[in-house]
């Protein structure tokens, strides 16, 4: 039913009626908190003494992130121990916009991932391990997504690398291991406080990517205060599924 709500007013009314939330509570959770960051240049990153110099040498061989066109996106698998999620980052102007996508099937990763080679046991395109797949729209599979804070452009080139415990992308005791999955260009579609639409043109991930803010049902809640959460999925690879929201009957008749 919620997919048929087109305006913010209708959305607020629906949530207030069905989930006992006041409009002020809903709008508070809808607020986007964009963190201001100091731009970091590619040269500054390469000059830093990070993980012993090994990964800086590899990064130096790659294209400078500030030279990528606007809309460049990168998807990777990010593991810490037996926990894994996907990261998608999209280049805006001088920063990256991104999401954390919790797509690992519970219990599918049964060994700690401490190096890039450890990923070989877990192919990224195995739907029994990872739910976020190029063809997931046809199966009506959805993943919980979390907005990332604004990040510097250098993250576009951080891929296929392992960071030791206590460093960037890791935890205190677990390695942070990144595996490149896909990259390409992302084109913005409709952007609302509770709905976002992107069109991906990557090597594997292609088509309409949707993020939808929905009320959290009591049985879903892991944290008592969680009342709204984002879900994401790739729309079905059909003409109807790939139709931009603005061209749909609902999009043409609603603001």
Structure description:
The protein is of the alpha+beta class and 255 residues long. The chain has one domain (2-253). Helices cover 16% and strands 29% of the residues. The protein has an 8-stranded antiparallel barrel. It is globular and about 50 Å long. The two termini are 18 Å apart. 27% of the residues are buried. The model is unreliable at 1-5, 32-40 and 48-54 (pLDDT under 50).
Chart the SSEs and their pairings.
Layout: H1 8-19, H2 23-30, H3 42-47, H4 54-60, E1 72-80, E2 83-91, E3 96-102, E4 143-147, E5 161-163, E6 176-192, E7 195-202, E8 206-215, E9 228-234, H5 239-242, H6 249-253
Distance between the termini: 18 Å
Strand order of the largest sheet: 1-2-3-4-9-8-7-6
- pLDDT below 50 for ≥5 consecutive residues: which ranges? 1-5, 32-40, 48-54
**β content, as a range?**
25-35%
- Radius of gyration, in Å, reads 19 Å
Please give a handful of descriptors for the protein shown:
alpha+beta, 8-stranded antiparallel β-barrel, 9 strands
Structure, briefly:
The protein is an alpha+beta fold and 255 residues long. The chain has helices at residues 8-19, 23-30, 42-47, 54-60, 239-242, 249-253; strands at residues 72-80, 83-91, 96-102, 143-147, 161-163, 176-192, 195-202, 206-215, 228-234.
